[in-house]
């Protein structure tokens, strides 16, 4: 159904323009509610502060975790926070997919000349993302300096951040699209993925069984969001692993768009 | 009036289990966080101990954390938040029903839907991982009593969090912040025993500590019977404090309600 109403001839330029305009409209809306912005941004910062506190408390009790030291772990947490916070800024509306499917609100978006996924993704901006990204970058920078990594690694850090953001946005989109088949108001699969990332991916992968490593690297490539770039930077993994970052990003985007498209095909509005 | 509470709780219960697959997966996946915690702390503790917890004690601690978090997150906080964000609260304000009491009934109904799965998951975890046994039969009984207070405490904390929706346009970020506060100050992320004294002081001054540290301390015998009763009394005090405190917050924030189109 979506394919007939969303022309395949939409150009990247048009899609980009729609995305940009929709996001700018949201930003204009934010400026109308400055109190809301500061409450939410502070909520985002709070998450980071407590993650910082967690690592500080932990490393006061142990010198290292599976060979990883304090500053490396700070980078691990910081990069995940930057990626997760960026999804709140760039595609927070995607979390509404389940609600829209239940209420039949996808119908309206199918009739407009822009990809449905872009329209859904830009229905909100999670303002906590500004706090998360800001403090997450502070954690990455503090960890980077503390770990003694030189300026030569800066391009790799920047590549890692870009790939992390792309992978995270794509995977959140993919898991929110599950609601096309498994109906429910909440995007539980995406929540579970984020929850698992916050529990497991803020720790070195060496702590977990081989199955977890295989899944997080090659099935749901969340390891490429933060673990692989930081491990490659700090010497825990061979440098050639960085090639996997753009590859994982491209694969995640293709998978997300494919799954969302399949979901739209199976979408039958509400009440049927 | 009680029949209204039961009706609202039943509706919330049925709503939770209406989306069976979503409900089932959310419970099943909750277990992954437990497994991640077990992997991390197994490595950190090894054959020794950390903060007074040896490996069997830490397993019990983590399983209690799994049980309490499964229960605490299963309520209807999104439904509460959406009523404020969508403006449905305007309809609620016209009803001859106390808003807070109605939401409490719905929240407890939602939590109750997760009880069978939470118990099943906990029993499975106990059988598989063989955690430390309770310090005594009395400690076990007092642990169960302390766990019952999770219901009013979870409602109080979540209701307070949803009040933020009067001044924000979105609940997701508030939810993440609340989750993080609870995970850290309850001791789920890292036991309070590992925190510096001043941070332990802050944690013990907040209600979150009763979600994990209190039941785990009672279960493992880290406090004696009198201490356990004191902690349970603190839980009761927090449940009451949150109930009446959120009423005051409500009275102020409801004046800010913005209903679209009105």
Please supply descriptive tags for the structure shown above.
heterodimer; A: 272 residues; mainly alpha; 13 helices; 70% helix; disordered N terminus; B: 262 residues; two-stranded antiparallel ribbon; 12 helices; 2 strands; globular; ABC-type uncharacterized transport system, permease component (chain A); ABC-2_transporter-like (chain A); transmembrane (chain A); membrane (chain A); transmembrane helix (chain A)
In a nutshell, what does this entry contain?
The complex is a heterodimer of chains A (272) and B (262). With 272 residues, chain A is mainly alpha-helical. In chain A, 70% of the residues lie in helices and 0% in strands.
Structure overview:
- The complex is a heterodimer of chains A (272) and B (262).
- Chain A is an all-alpha fold and 272 residues long.
- In chain A, 70% of the residues lie in helices and 0% in strands.
- In chain A, helix 3 (34-61) runs parallel beside helix 8 (128-146), helix 4 (70-91) crosses helix 9 (154-177) and helix 9 runs antiparallel to helix 10.
- Chain A is globular.
- The model of chain A is unreliable at 1-5 (pLDDT under 50).
- Chain B is globular and about 60 Å long.
- The mean pLDDT of chain B is 86.
- Chain B has one domain (2-256).
- A two-stranded antiparallel sheet of chain B has the order 1-2.
- In chain B, helix 6 crosses helix 8 and helix 7 (137-148) packs parallel to helix 12.
- The A-B interface holds A 29, 33, 35-36, 39-40, 43-44, 46-47, 50-51, 53-54, 57-58, 60-62, 65-66, 88, 92, 95, 124, 126-129, 182-186, 188-189, 191-192, 195-196, 199-200, 203, 207-209, 212 and B 19, 21-23, 25-26, 29, 32-33, 36-37, 39-40, 43-44, 50-51, 78, 164, 167-170, 172-174, 176-177, 180-181, 183-184, 189-190, 194-196, 199.
């Amino acid at each position: 159904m979506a394919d007939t109403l969303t022309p395949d001839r939409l150009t990247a330029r048009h899609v980009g323009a729609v995305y940009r305009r929709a996001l700018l409209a949201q930003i204009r809306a934010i400026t109308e509610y400055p109190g809301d912005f500061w409450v939410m941004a502070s909520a985002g910062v709070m998450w980071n502060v407590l993650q910082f506190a967690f690592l500080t408390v932990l490393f006061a009790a142990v010198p290292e975790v599976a060979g990883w030291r304090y500053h490396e772990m700070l980078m691990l947490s910081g990069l995940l926070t930057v990626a997760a916070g960026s999804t709140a800024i760039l595609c927070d509306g995607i979390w509404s997919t389940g609600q829209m499917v239940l209420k039949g609100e996808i119908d309206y978006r199918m009739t407009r000349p822009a990809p449905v996924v872009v329209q859904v993704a830009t229905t909100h901006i999670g303002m906590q993302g500004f706090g998360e990204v800001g403090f997450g970058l502070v954690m990455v920078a503090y960890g980077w300096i503390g770990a003694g990594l030189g300026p030569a690694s800066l391009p790799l850090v920047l590549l890692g951040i870009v790939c992390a953001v792309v992978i995270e946005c794509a995977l959140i989109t993919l898991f929110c699209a599950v609601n096309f088949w498994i109906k429910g108001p909440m995007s539980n699969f995406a929540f579970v993925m984020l929850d698992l990332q916050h529990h497991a991916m803020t720790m070195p992968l060496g702590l977990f069984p081989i199955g977890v490593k295989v899944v997080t690297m090659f099935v749901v490539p969340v390891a490429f969001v933060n673990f692989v770039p930081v491990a490659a930077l700090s010497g825990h993994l061979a440098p050639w692993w960085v090639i996997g970052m753009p590859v994982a990003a491209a694969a995640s985007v293709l998978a997300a768009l494919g799954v969302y498209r399949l979901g739209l095909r199976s979408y039958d509005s509400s009440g049927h | 009036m009680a029949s209204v509470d039961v009706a609202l709780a039943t509706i919330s219960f049925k709503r939770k289990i209406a989306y069976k697959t979503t409900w089932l997966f959310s419970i099943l996946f909750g277990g992954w966080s437990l497994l991640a915690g077990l992997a991390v702390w197994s490595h950190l503790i090894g054959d020794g101990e950390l903060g007074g917890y040896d490996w069997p004690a830490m397993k019990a601690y983590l399983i209690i954390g799994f049980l309490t978090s499964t229960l605490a997150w299963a309520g209807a906080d999104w439904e509460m938040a959406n009523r404020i964000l969508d403006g449905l609260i305007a309809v609620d304000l016209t009803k001859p029903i106390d808003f807070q009491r109605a939401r409490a009934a719905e929240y407890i109904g939602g939590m109750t839907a997760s009880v069978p799965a939470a118990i099943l998951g906990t029993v499975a975890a106990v059988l598989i991982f063989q955690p430390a046994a309770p310090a005594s039969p009395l400690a076990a009984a007092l642990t169960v009593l302390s766990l019952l207070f999770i219901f009013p405490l979870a409602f109080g904390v979540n209701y307070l969090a949803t009040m933020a929706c009067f001044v924000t346009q979105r609940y997701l970020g508030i939810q993440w912040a609340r989750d993080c506060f609870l995970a850290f100050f309850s001791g789920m992320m890292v036991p309070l025993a590992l925190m510096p004294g001043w941070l332990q002081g802050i944690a013990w001054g907040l209600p979150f500590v009763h979600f994990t540290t209190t039941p785990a301390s009672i279960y493992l015998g880290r406090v004696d019977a009198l201490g356990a009763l004191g902690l349970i009394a603190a839980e009761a005090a927090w449940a009451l404090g949150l109930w009446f405190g959120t009423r005051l917050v409500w009275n102020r924030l409801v004046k800010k309600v913005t209903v679209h189109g009105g």
